[in-house]
Structure formats: C-alpha cells, structure tokens
Amino acid sequence: MTSTTTSPADAAVTQDGEVLVLRLADPGKGSALDDPALRAATAALREVARGEREVGAILLLGAGRNFCAGGNVRDFASAQHRPTFIRALADTFHDFVTALLDADRPVVAGVRGWAAGAGLSIVLHADVAIGGPSTNLRPAYTGIGLSPDGGMTWTLPRIVGAARAREIILTDRVISADEAYSWGILSRLVDDAEIDDTAADIARTLAAGPRAGLAAARALLTGSATAGLRDQLAAEAHAISTNSGTPEGIEGVDAFVDKRTPDYAAARNR
C-alpha cells in the first residue's frame, strides 16, 4: 500500500455543511502562511461571491499547533529580488483579503497558539475570534525590518484605537490572550482544547441564520466607523425596512409570532 501526503493547499478548503472552512498555514513550515493554500482559499471565496458555492459563514482555523505565524521569512531571504518577490506575495495576500470581503459572509476565527504577522492581519478581519490561554498575537513586521500588510494598519486602529495600534505595531508588541480579549480583538476566551470546536459551533449558528440580515448588520457595523449619526440612522432605517420584506425577514417575524424556531433555509428556497 502506498501512502499519500496531503499538501496544505489540498487541506486549505473544506466545507462543513454550509460553513466554508479555510486553513491557510503550513504546519510543516512553522505554521507559515502557505501561498498555494491562500490561492485555493481565494478561489473558493470568489465562488461564494459569484453564487457558485452555497455557504452561510466562513471559518478560519490553524493547521497544527498555531493559527498562522505569518509569511515564510526564509523564502523572503532566498528570493532573487526581494522587492519583486514580496510584492507578489502581498498582492496574493490582498487578493485573499478582498475575496473575504466580497464573499460577504460572517467570518469566525479559531485562534489557537500564535497569530503573527499576516496571521494577525487575518484575525483582525474576523467578525468573531475565539482564543484561549495559548493564544498570542504579534504584528511581527517591524521585527524583521518591514511594514504591515493584509490591512493591519486599517483594521487594528479601528478595533483598539489609534494610539494603542501605533504602540503595538511600532514596538512589535506581543499581545496576550487576556489583553486581546480586553481590547476587543478576541471575542471570547475558552480552554485551548475547545477553541476550534467553539469557533465551529458559532460559524454553524451564523450559517443557519438570516443571510440578508447578517450581511446588512455587518455592513452597518463597518460603516459606522466613518458615518455621522444621522447618516447611520438613515442607513439602519433603509436596511431594516428592506430586510422586513425579504423571505428571511418575513420568516423571522412570523416564526416569532408563531412561537417556533425560524427556518431561514426553507425561506430562502421558497
């Protein structure tokens, strides 16, 4: 009998019911971000955006002991022309980030062990991030003489505030699980053994929920950072009235009145 080895790209994209599960790190290379896995995940997210893959939530998990330790620095060092090589890596990474945005589904991350560099950038794009005692976060970019990518300089100030984000990124500060939770980077702390299962349970719950309502809520939360109160009230009024006329909105209200559990999947298929 011959054995086969599963590459990170092969394992990068799986589906658990209506949850798209993405694992982007290569445990064989110190949990470094894996380029083929990233490309496979981006392709799957583009399928979601085009309506070619039916999912209701996206779950980001590590492979091995850590969530993701960032880019493979040894590859950086061995590149024939580092600026060209790293620009290509950044473009591939940013294709993934924009595909994650375009998929327009709730994003849940199970952050076990280290999330450093690009790994931290990925965590910061999650709507819900679950960590535990083993969880440690680190920007890691200035530690190797570089600057962030993956949107870190956009997301981190919005989560922890401008002053704290500057201190974290510029000093390459390691953030403990307790700090990450108290600052709003992590949504919940559980035992290490429960991180992946808890994240998966949350993703399944979101996947079974009202997709239009969740998409609208996520868009409102994102827009609130730069919107004035009057504009935000107008956006909320438009979203809630629009959603009340969708099959899922009708089902949710009717189920409440009927004292039953809403069946959003059935409503979507009517």
Automatic annotation (TrEMBL):
Gene3D superfamilies: 2-enoyl-CoA Hydratase, Chain A, domain 1 (3.90.226.10), Lyase 2-enoyl-coa Hydratase, Chain A, domain 2 (1.10.12.10). InterPro entries: ClpP/crotonase-like_dom_sf, Enoyl-CoA_hyd/isom_CS, Enoyl-CoA_hydra/iso, Enoyl-CoA_hydra_C. Keywords: Fatty acid metabolism, Lipid metabolism. PROSITE patterns: ENOYL_COA_HYDRATASE. One of its GO terms (biological process) is fatty acid metabolic process. SUPFAM superfamilies: ClpP/crotonase. It comes from the Bacteria. GO terms for molecular function: enoyl-CoA hydratase activity. Could possibly oxidize fatty acids using specific components. This is Putative enoyl-CoA hydratase. It comes from Gordonia aichiensis NBRC 108223. The lineage of its organism: Bacteria, Bacillati, Actinomycetota, Actinomycetes, Mycobacteriales.
